[in-house]
Every structure is written in C-alpha cells, then in structure tokens.
Amino acid sequence: MSDTAALTDSPSSSAAESSGSEGRRQQLLDFVRHHEFARIQDLARQLGVSEVTIRSDIDILARAGGIRRVRGGAMRVVEAVPEVVYEARVSSHQREKRAIGLAAAAMLSSGDSVILDVGTTAMAVADAIVDRQDLTNLTVFTPGLNIALALERAIPRIEVVVTGGTLRPQQHSLVGPNSTLILEQIRATFGFLGCNGIDPSHGVVGLSLSDVALKQAILKASRTSVIITDASKFSQTSLVRVCGFTDIDLVLTAGAPDPVSVEAVREAGTEVRILPVE
Fold first, then answer.
1. Pairing relationship of beta strands 188-193 and 173-175 according to DSSP bridges
2. In 5, 95, 153, 267, which residue has its Cα 20 to 30 A from 137's Cα atom?
3. Where are the domains of the chain?
4. Rounded to two decimals, what is the model's pTM?
5. pLDDT digit string (tens) for 72-118?
6. What class has domain 3-76?
7. Fold topology of 86-275
8. Going by DSSP bridges, is the β-strand pair 250-254/222-228 parallel, antiparallel, or unpaired?
C-alpha cells in the first residue's frame, strides 16, 4: 500500500475530514445567519467547494434546525412571532400603515363592496375610507368591532355590515364558525387582509386556527384579494398558513421589506407594491 493511500485511510485523516466538514458547515451557518439569505452558488464560491457539497451541508443544517432550505439557497430560521394585543401595536409603524391605508382606499370606487379584516393596518384603511368624501354607496363587511365603529362616521355614505361570531378581545374581532356565514353568501369587489407574516417558503401566515379560517373565508369571498402589511411582517413566520402567494392578487406594503420575501412573492406571479413613507 502506498504512503498516500495509507494516509487517506488512516483514522486521523477521517477525523480531519470530519473536522473540516464541521468547520465548513459552521462557516456556512454563520454566513447565512449574518446575511439572512444566501444562494447556493455564492456559498460554494465563498467556501471553495462544489454546489453539490453545499446542498448536502444545507440539508444537514436544516435537519438540525439551524437554517431553512429555500429554493436556490438557504435562509436563517425566523422565530414565530407571538400575538401582541391591538392596543400594544397601535403606535408602531404608524407612517407605514397610513401609507397603506391611503393606497388601499384609493383603489375603491363608489358602488364597490369591501371585506376589511381586523388589526391596526386595517384600521388605517378604515380611516382612509372615511376620509374619502367622494365615496358613496360603498358596502364594507368587517369582523372587527372597532373597525365597524371607525366606519360609523361615514354612514350613510357607507353601509357597514359586521359579520358576526364569537368575540376575540385581543384584536376586538369576531371569529368562530358563525363569523363566516355572511361571507359564504357574498362576492365582494375587494378583500383587504392583514397577516402575521410573509414567510418565503410557507406563504402568508396567521396566528391561530380561528383567525386563519376567517382570513381564508375573506379570500374566497373577494374578487380581488389584497394583503395589507407593513414591512416588518416580511420574513416573519407564525403558527398557521393562510394561503400561498398564488392565492392573492396584490401585496400592499410600506417601508423596507425583506428582499428575499419580496422576491418569493413576485416569483409566484403576485404583485408587491412597496409604498413610499412620508
């Protein structure tokens, strides 16, 4: 046996190879966590190995929970965001939510019908609708008690219909089986939906089964479905999947959304409109 073969087959050589693989994977992990997303080609070039090796490393790290494999590369694992009550979120990202509200209201014409979800961004849409004095004969369906009260100022120009259900005080919303009965009977011009996250590999996500069931009913009852969310929700994940990106028509956002998440939505053929913040 040659000296080279003996060296290759020796225990110390195997240990060195294993140590080298572990070191490379740690570098890969650090790189992805620092950049949030990395393409396979870039990782191969950065670490000086083949793309096949990088794919294998990504699979190993993904199984361990260190990163998440997505199409074309890997991204850092994003922790699920816990629910925050409505009042605690009112003061956050106010300029972004106002920009989204104005853009959503600008899409409407007199005679339209709208399903408006719950949450602080939906409230910004409600305020913008009320401020549009030119809108008449508009019908707004909402599961949000506070949203309905905000729209009350525009009656009789706007007809407000509360969808019903069981009160969920965290968001002042009505949920449960009864909350979808009205929605099953209508086909609104627009549906404006909030979300808890835009997950590049999982789609639009929500916090609870009851909340997601309501959002899915809004999707089915809308001719044009629009996700309304500030940029902070991009790359966040949550417990339950609402829908895929192909199931929505438009994402209205403002601020500086995570570019990987934006690209994932656009690759699905769905428009992402990033609004300027004044």
1. unpaired
2. 95
3. 3-76, 86-275
4. 0.71
5. 888 776 555 555 665 555 557 889 999 999 999 999 999 999 999 99
6. mainly alpha
7. Rossmann fold (3.40.50)
8. parallel
Which residue from 231, 236, 226 is spatially nearest to 276, judged by alpha carbons? 231
Q: What does residue 206 show for φ and ψ, rounded to 5 degrees?
A: -125, 180
Centre a 10 Å sphere on the Cβ of residue 245 and count the other Cβ atoms it contains: 21
d(CA 207, CA 195): 8
Burial 135-158 (b: 16+ CB within 10 A, else e): beebbbbbbbbbbbebbeebeebb
Residue with tokens 């609004």: 275
CA distance linking residue 125 with residue 101, whole number of Å: 4
Whose tokens are 């972004």? That residue is 96
- Alpha helix segments (H runs only) across the chain: 3-9, 11-35, 40-47, 51-63, 86-89, 94-106, 120-131, 145-151, 209-220, 259-267
